[in-house]
Design brief:
Blueprint: E1 8-12, E2 19-24, H1 38-41, E3 49-54, E4 58-61, E5 67-70, H2 86-105, E6 113-118, H3 120-130, E7 138-142, H4 152-155, E8 165-170, H5 178-190, E9 195-200, H6 208-221
Parallel strand pairs: 2-3, 2-6, 6-7, 7-8, 8-9
Antiparallel strand pairs: 1-3, 4-5
Helix pairs in contact: 2-3
């Protein structure tokens, strides 16, 4: 690990994996958060995968009274009109790109990588994936939104314009409200992206049914 590459929890599903899933956790969690979900994501007949669950840097979060916690960027308010931490988003984008580069160095080409995340991590997956100059296998955004959406059209890269994107959201989510997820879906679909959109009768969480759908998505794109 170099100083520009985050520490991460790693789970491999077989020897010598040829594809990777980089999964970014939500605000205040860490790389262990979705580690237990791996068995539910691995379906019969899938190739050997490496799941990479990085730990976000620790930083003070305005929304939580300045309390330091693991986060991809600062959040002042959770709504579509709040001021955004552009420098934090951009610095975490660089960290995610470094994780992708590390997988490349380990023999996994970008086209065999899925970039995924939940909540703030999902926002970073959408942000970074659509601005990446190398094609990904897929992008997954769970219970999230698109950061800096007003800059999307100017900043997006063509490489992932046809990359499958899986978006899911809880109908009862009071942390990241459903309209924020719907706005991300509309932005992407309106610009020609292929979206698989699913909603579930839950709050700001994941469900077994959702994990099964993600596993099916992974098997299809990888």
């Amino acid at each position: 690990m170099t100083s520009t590459t985050l520490a991460a929890v790693e789970v491999t599903t077989g020897p010598e994996p040829t594809a990777s899933v980089i999964w970014l956790h939500g605000l205040g969690a860490d790389g262990h958060d979705f580690e237990p979900a791996v068995p539910q994501l691995v379906l019969p007949g899938m190739r050997a995968l490496r799941f990479v669950f990085p730990h976000a840097p620790i930083r003070p979060i305005t929304l939580n009274g300045g309390m330091p916690m693991r986060a991809w960027y600062d959040i002042a308010q959770l709504n579509r009109h709040a001021a955004e931490d552009e420098s934090g988003v951009r610095s975490s984008e660089a960290l995610v790109r470094a994780l992708i580069a590390r997988e490349n160095e380990r023999g996994v080409p970008t086209v065999n990588i899925v970039l995924a995340g939940f909540s703030q991590g999902g926002a970073m997956a959408l942000y970074t994936g659509t601005r990446l100059k190398e094609k990904l296998a897929g992008i997954i955004g769970l219970s999230c939104y698109m950061p800096r959406s007003n800059h999307f059209v100017a900043e997006r890269e063509a490489a992932n314009a046809a990359t499958p994107i899986f978006l899911a959201h809880g109908l009862l989510d009071v942390v990241v409200a459903l309209p924020m997820g719907e706005a991300a879906r509309a932005l992407l679909a309106g610009n020609g992206y292929t979206i698989e959109w699913r909603t579930y009768p839950m709050g700001h969480s994941v469900s077994a049914e959702e994990l099964l759908a993600i596993g099916q998505f992974l098997k299809r794109v990888l």
